[in-house]
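Q: I'm writing up a methods section and want to include an example of the input and output format. Could you take the sequence below and give the corresponding predicted structure tokens, formatted cleanly so I can copy it straight into the document?
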Amino acid sequence: MSKSFISILGTNDYLECRHSYKNKISDSIVKYVQEDLIKLFCQDFTEQDEIRIFLTDLARARNWENDGFSKSNEGLKSRLFNTGLICKINNYSIPDGNNENDIWEIFEIILNTFHQDEIVIVDITHSFRFLPMLLTTLLNYAKYQKNITIKGIYYAAFESLGTINEIKDIPAENRITPIFDLTSLSLLQDWTVASFDFINNANVQKLNQLVGEENKFIKSLSNNQKFFPQNVIKKLEKLISNIVLCRGKELLEFNYNYLKENINKLKNLPILPKPFFFLIDELYKKVQNFNNNYNDLIIVIADWCLEHNFYQQMVTLLQEFSITLILDECLLDKFNEQYRIINSQAFKILAQGISEEHWQSPAKDYKEITNHILKSVKLKNLKDSFQSLTDLRNDINHAGFLRDARNVDSIKSRLKNILDNYKNHLTN
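A: Here is the clean output for your methods example:
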């Protein structure tokens, strides 16, 4: 896996200084921050790795080549090649960025230098005007297009020393410029994507990955304080998987109170990544209505499916939970396959007014059980909706190839109406 250091060289006549990073001050005086950043972060670079400097024409003339600003001056090019590093040192021309076309060209030039799965270190010190925003957006895009890993984003705050005139009066060896680690900006973008994916799509894969990578915030806790956020996310992931894969038995037996209690416990952790802390309330909102009451659960799950476009799952779960509710009302074994088939037949018998002599097996073989189920109040209230679900289930499972197949909008509208009917009969 290759590594790269990328930086955009500016056009100013930079003053010499030293740099500090994590309370350590560099020994030598340098003119370009890239010199010290490369000493700090690129010493392990091999022949497969690369230092990339992006240059406008003016930056090239003034600071890349020697003798810029019409005076004796060793440019960054010479200084980098004299470091003794064995990695590649390349420069890339970019436009000035004076219009939208230039901006997109800069975006494309930098993006095209990235290799698949590359580890990237970024210097944004001299990224003038819009370039820090462009780089931030570009890096986030490259993480998904080329699977790059952002190892570090750094900024040398030279302006923290004062105005230019004030700084000129400070001896070069006393100009100590702090280097800030802004890698968290990249991490924040990852959290933003993970949060969006969870809130809008009920997908916790990225969230699970990020929480797993943040083990550092529990290492300092004593044993009696340790509570692993990743365990909560995995439990939430299990719930979502049960819905997506229509695992009705698991949904009936799931410990929803345990999940809700442990989501709330996350707020009490003394050390927690800020983006995750702000997401805790959203996690709770997603599960707050789940409970083990069958009447409530069927509505909550159907609402969840409708909200996240799980239409096929909604149809299947509504039907199978309806059968479960009625068998439970009739005090019959809800996991008995024969009873479930009879219950499904009973919906049709009642909805279509089928006489006893025309019943099909197994209903006609277990008439006492069938008649017992036919007395169910829930069966009477839900029979029409259940039959509509049967039609939708056939339509969806046959991929819309039936003669009277509905279009997508029709299916969505019908599901909303069916759910409203369920709410009227099960929640009042």
